[in-house]
């Protein structure tokens, strides 16, 4: 395989470099709940659409804030959002610590392995538990739960619980107490 002719479009390269520096320095330095509005402001400055009550932990790594649409939700510590394409996270949803949301891959049907992307959508009331992986093109329906360390490559039906690698249906989610 000769990759010497491979090229990939980088439409936001300069902005991406500046954001990377901000994400690994200023964003991380302002840790704690007290500074969440400041972190949200930095994300907005770089193009994120983010609810005023969203909570994004300072240790979170976000590839491209301009591809993030975040409702009144929580992105936990040490999460990674590799959002070369759009990531939409609905209201009252939680992405727990160590989780990885990845909107890009490579076309394995080509020897050049060109980059391919598809958005990820998490509905309202979704919980992505610790260390889970959500792949490109996946929609996690309203109220669904993705178990700890699960790897999700296909859509998750609303109000279901999935787990494992690859993630499989475990049971229906029923709310019994508010």
Structure, explained:
With 178 residues, the chain is of the alpha/beta class. It has one domain (13-162): UDP N-Acetylglucosamine Acyltransferase, domain 1. Helix content is 15%, strand content 28%. It has helices spanning 13-24, 26-29, 36-45, and strands at 49-50, 55-56, 61-62, 68-70, 74-75, 80-82, 87-89, 94-95, 100-102, 104-106, 115-117, 120-122, 127-128, 133-134, 139-140, 145-146, 151-152, 160-163, 168-172. A 7-stranded mixed sheet has the order 2-5-8-13-16-18-19. Strand 18 and strand 19 form a beta hairpin. It is flat and about 55 Å long.
Task: Compile the SSE list and pairings.
Elements: H1 13-24, H2 26-29, H3 36-45, E1 49-50, E2 55-56, E3 61-62, E4 68-70, E5 74-75, E6 80-82, E7 87-89, E8 94-95, E9 100-102, E10 104-106, E11 115-117, E12 120-122, E13 127-128, E14 133-134, E15 139-140, E16 145-146, E17 151-152, E18 160-163, E19 168-172
Parallel strand pairs: 1-4, 2-5, 3-6, 4-7, 5-8, 6-9, 7-12, 8-13, 9-14, 12-15, 13-16, 14-17, 16-18
Antiparallel strand pairs: 10-11, 18-19
